[in-house]
Amino acid sequence: MSCVKNILFIIFLNILGLTQINAQHTDLDTVYFVKKTPFLEKILSSQGLYANINLSKDNNIIPGQGTNFAEYSQEIIKDEKNLYVNLQRTGFVFILFNQNDSILEFRRIDRTINLNYNIGCYNFLYEDQLYSYGGYGFWKTNGHLRQFNVLDKQWDIIPLNKEIFSNGYRWYSNKEGKLFVPFQDFENAGLKSIPQDQLETKTESYYLDLKQRDWIKLGRLDPSIKKILEEDPNPSGFISVQNGCLHIINDEIYYFDFIENKIYKSIKPEYNQFFIRRIGLDNTFESKGNIYFYYPSTGKIESVPFNLSNFELLNFPIWRRNTGSDKYVAFVLLFILIVFFITRFFKQKIQQRIVLSQLKHLKAKSVSQAFVGTEISLIDMLLQASLANEKIEIHQINHVLGIKDKNVGLQKKVRSDVINGINDKYQIITNGPNPLIVSVRKEDDKRFLEYFILPSEIKEIQKIINKSKNN
């Protein structure tokens, strides 16, 4: 009897170690036995949960160490009946096949051959069928809809009436059977520039009717929300909640209600900070009014309520429905804008003449009087950095200018005014063509700028600053 127990115990240990053994192969195996974590237990116990959950590397379910897929992100796709694990960029799909108190059995159900055509695609379940929408691959984005064929174990293309492109801003309603895309965003590395007619359709809002398999136009993106979205060039970190999704834009939390066509903004700083500290939003999902976060390193789960009392409703929708009066409204707005810019242009010209006159007087008297305190502080910081072959980031400039606690729009305006003012004064003082302060995109994150002083101007500005300090 004891011999039988020992044999069973050895078999059990082999099962537990199977994932480590499997991971030594360059390709993935078709079956994995995974230990049930508190995270998986919470997901499986959440009744009526429909969710797409991006996993962090230390919370991957399918072990990829030692394989060609070790760096591929993984995602859980869950409905009432099934739980799938998808390896992003691949089309590989594993299904939870069996479970007991502590061990989960996952089996691969696809025979995917073509890889890397669907980077960043959106996966979802409709009427127990697994779908994949959009993505990037082979130098361009696509707006294709693919359905997993359970018989052939391959992905089939689904013909639609249009090809609508998307980025992170998309949301699927299982209840409605609709996939919402508020605006289009696409890339094509094979073209020098995107045709103008395609750019014009970028602000159109659509939803995909899964039953009819047709894209339905909702209207055009509201100008106010378009302005907000322009500050979020590389969107990531969405949480699907009731009627829409939460997203972080410039340290603010926005709630996009796609069902009601409304947008909300968080009014509580502590609520914003909570999500900002978890900006990747991996291992996160919403269930019955609560948002759950899992920490693999500790095995702990925490939650915060999703409550509209933490938000204010903004006075514009996500999209504007098409009406016959749009042209007249656009004409009136265009007329107002023309008057505004003409007035502003002449005011700037007058102001420039005054400034030029003052600067010429300053130059004739003493060039060291041209720059004021904050300008000198900013120049000095940039000068020290440039001498050390370093660059200055935006937040450092905000700190020197005393605007680090202001809103993003005001920060951008103050930075631009101060830097442009310094460059104008410098070119007048030196009577040269070169500006003093220039900027470049960060090498590791092209969304942000870094500032520095042109190397050719370092000696000249040192002379000016030294004179200013001595006086």
Written overview of the protein:
It is a single chain. By secondary structure, this protein is an alpha+beta fold. It has a domain at 366-470: Arc Repressor Mutant, subunit A (Orthogonal Bundle), CATH 1.10.10. Helices cover 31% and strands 29% of the residues. It has eleven helices and 26 strands. The strands form six sheets. Strands 1-6-5-4-3-2 form a six-stranded antiparallel beta sheet. The protein is globular and about 80 Å long. The termini are far apart. Mean pLDDT is 83; it is low at 18-25.
Keywords:
single chain; 471 residues; Arc Repressor Mutant, subunit A; 6-stranded antiparallel sheet; 5-stranded antiparallel sheet; 11 helices; 26 strands; 31% helix; globular
In short:
The protein is 31% helix and 29% strand. The protein is of the alpha+beta class and 471 residues long.
Task: Report the helical percentage.
Answer: 25-40%
Main sheet makeup: 6 strands, antiparallel
Distance linking N and C termini: 98 Å
Radius of gyration: 28 Å
**Proportion of β residues?**
25-35%
Q: What structural class do the secondary elements suggest?
A: alpha+beta
Query: How many helices in DSSP terms?
Result: 11
